[in-house]
Task: inverse folding
């Protein structure tokens, strides 16, 4: 038996998600970048708004912000260009835009995803490829360098399976940019 208060989590703030959503919407409105509804499409998830269903990530304070950033990038994908070069041990990518405000969102997204990999804080786990990638996150090295119009990333591993996962992920991200939300809803195979 434990002492009172030592194993208890602090009470959840029911307004935190609402605040984060409002914060993201305000930031995106300030930049002038068109974005999708920060709560997701109707008809899915808690209260019919998508996301927020009680699964992994619910206690992750940056999940809602990261998801809103992803939706903004998808909504503006026609302004994004991407080059992927396969390396023997991973990938080298350059993702850019001519829109300075969208560039800032793009750089923020990539830096946030790098932190998620480093901290093994998964996102998009319902997709088998993303689940496998995060199970191997401790085997991934990422170097991120902002460019004048976007971001340059080198993502590598010494593990052959993880190299295949990195390369498959790079291909899927390119498909996200090409096909938008329809592609995001697909389940991508693990190589």
Result:
């Amino acid at each position: 038996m434990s002492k009172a208060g030592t194993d208890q989590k602090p009470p959840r703030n029911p307004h935190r998600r609402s605040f984060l959503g409002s914060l993201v919407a305000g930031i995106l409105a300030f930049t002038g970048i068109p974005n999708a509804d920060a709560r997701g499409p109707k008809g899915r998830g808690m209260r019919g708004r998508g996301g927020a269903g009680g699964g992994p990530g619910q206690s992750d304070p940056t999940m809602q912000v990261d998801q809103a950033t992803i939706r903004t990038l998808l909504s503006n994908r026609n302004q994004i260009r991407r080059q992927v070069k396969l390396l023997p041990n991973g990938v080298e990518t350059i993702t850019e835009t001519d829109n300075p405000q969208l560039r800032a969102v793009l750089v923020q997204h990539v830096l946030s995803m790098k932190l998620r990999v480093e901290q093994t804080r998964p996102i998009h786990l319902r997709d088998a490829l993303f689940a496998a990638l995060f199970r191997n996150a401790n085997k991934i090295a990422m170097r991120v360098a902002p460019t004048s119009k976007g971001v340059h990333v080198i993502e590598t591993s010494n593990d052959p399976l993880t190299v295949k996962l990195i390369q498959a992920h790079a291909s899927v991200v390119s498909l996200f940019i090409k096909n938008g939300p329809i592609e995001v809803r697909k389940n991508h195979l693990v190589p």
